[in-house]
Design goal:
Length: about 450
Amino acid sequence: MMTLPLVLRGDVRPFIIIGAGRVAERKVMTLVQAGADVTVIAPQATATIHRLADEGRIGLQQRQAGEAEEFARGSLVVLASNNAVLNQALAESARQQGCLVCRTDATADNDFIFPAVVDRSPLLVSISTSGASPALTRHVRQRLEAFLPQDYGRLANFAEQLRERVKNLLPAPERAAFWRRWFNGRAPELILARQAERAESETDACLDGRNNNGEVWLVGAGPGDPDLLTFRALRLIQSADVVYYDRLVGAAIMDLIDPAAERYYVGKQKSDHSVPQDDINQLLVTSARAGKRVLRLKGGDPFIFGRGGEEIEQLADHEIPFQVVPGITAASGCAAYAGIPLTHRDHAQSVRFVTGHLKNGSCELPWEELVHPGQTLVIYMGLSGLPHICARLIAAGMPADTPVALVEKGTLPDQRVHVKTLATMPDYVADTDIQAPTLTIVGTVVTLHERLSWR
């Protein structure tokens, strides 16, 4: 590493900017945001630089800088003119006067550089390639901007205010252990979830050494593609002590879990419930009471045919703290990846979700209600019962030539979309090897699949 990243207070030393074009403007804006004392020297300037000068936020000297320019010792000089010869001369002169230099036209001749900054004040994250690839720097900054919620600034402010309390209450040898315990506890997550009162309570308990209560996170993992996880889901997945996961949670998402976390498979499929639902509910309660951060990881969305409501009822009855993080449900994810809009002005003005597998193992639905013009019907978990479903819909009055799409392994790399009609789908399913998970979409929106599917 040939450069050393440091955090510099913007108001300590003056900045002199030579040049007032677009490149200089970007530097000026960065410095103004940092509260720096900025003077711009250039015969002409952009409208933004003129506005900042008119507002009194920077100094502007509209003249041509000379090679014998004088700088106050200790100044930070940014050379952003389009005259390389002048920049070289000013760089040599500024250094002789005890200044540090940044040349925008010659990164190899820099004493300091401007990193890209992710601002979650008072938390700042700087990214730099030492001038090697500004495009890569911007790319990484954009990724971090998306990954770090704005509320990290709230977390940083909370931690700053907490420092004095920790100093007053704990002897120096105990403080580092406290901060490890606190940041790995529930309070930071509660702050990010904007639950300030609970965060204060958890912090008080941590200071008193009595924060041994756990919490359950009911998290939707989406339809399969890990890129469809929400940021909060990813953060909790990576923070859990123990994980109870379902069959529809794929390997790519499981790889995101902390290797040190305990993992328990509690998935269900037809005629094979590895762990009964009542036992799952009790496992969540028991693990939370043991002081663990418990992740209940479900495919899709926990509240859409995911039995999430049953699980949090049990948690509420036992006064176990919990969070629910929604996920992209299979209907949205699979339809989008298959190029089938669930609603469309020319085809469907409403959409209805039903499950093809009911609690008692039957598939008895209000068939007449499901036959409705201008409606898309989405059937979860209906592969084995699809012949029965098609027959009952036709019997209830739905046209036999109504298009049907069966989305197999939706959003995953091996996704397949099978398009038939109510009349032809049963024989097709019988003659074709189709693997769960699947989702069935019924309605004229299916006709858009060929034109709108991803290429």
